[in-house]
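tool_call predict_complex ligand=NAP
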Amino acid sequence: MNKQLLILGGTTEAYALAEALALRDDLRVITSLAGRTAQPRIPAGEWRSGGFGGVAGLTTYLREQRIDAVIDATHPFAAAMTWNALESCAAAEVPLLRLERPAWIAAPEDRWELVTDWAEARAALITNGAQRVLLAVGRQELAPFTELPDIWLLIRVVTAPDPLLHFPASQILLARGPFDLAGERELFTAHNIDTIVCKNSGGDATAAKLIVARERNLHVIMRQRPPRPAQELAITVAESIHWLNRQLAT
Ligand SMILES: NC(=O)c1ccc[n+]([C@@H]2O[C@H](COP(=O)([O-])OP(=O)(O)OC[C@H]3O[C@@H](n4cnc5c(N)ncnc54)[C@H](OP(=O)(O)O)[C@@H]3O)[C@@H](O)[C@H]2O)c1
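tool_result ok
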């Protein structure tokens, strides 16, 4: 009988992993999406959508679906899912791997201010006298940045925020990465950006903005990743497939 792999998805890496494994005839590959996006990109292989109902729900799912291995490839900021996966896999005795792209690291010449939440980021904007800000925090995390006095925001989101919050001085830019360096330079010039607010997602797709900030000596307010459990970790799709092959061989 085929072995069953559950990928906890929502990231580029999760899609790439499903793509690489879906055609294997020794595997059934199921990607789980959180269901936040109305029209999500469809992964290769099978997929499901929506929360499991906490640790208990995921544990039941793993048992009922007879899952043989789980690869948690959720976003570095989707910490709740990662902690749940750890607990559920332990309870259901299913091997678990975390696939997580490395965080970006500041170069010596970078002007990053590290923050642990958006309230700190908001306060830093005011303290630093930011005036024209690229806000790249995700459409569900905009609320702390409403009513900022005397600060103009370029709010870059993949899909429109719903509900639309009130920003006194702003422009919404609907755009999906990857973003290249030439395009980012043009954008920063066109809007005269002096500060970026973003989270340390890592990866290449959205890193060009940080290079522009370095070139222009701009301020970056960088939200740090949330605390993570100590667990088996891969940083590439290839490493994850090696891990999976070892699990399936035992
Ligand atoms: N946070 C980000 O910045 C970000 C960026 C890009 C993509 N994403 C993706 O968007 C999804 C949601 O992110 P989040 O930050 O809201 O996550 P989160 O805070 O870690 O998760 C909250 C709840 O959403 C459900 N959930 C999350 N990921 C799921 C998945 N892959 N399949 C099924 N249920 C899932 C779980 O509900 P139950 O407890 O009911 O199981 C989880 O407890 C994740 O899949 C993540 O990979 C997040």
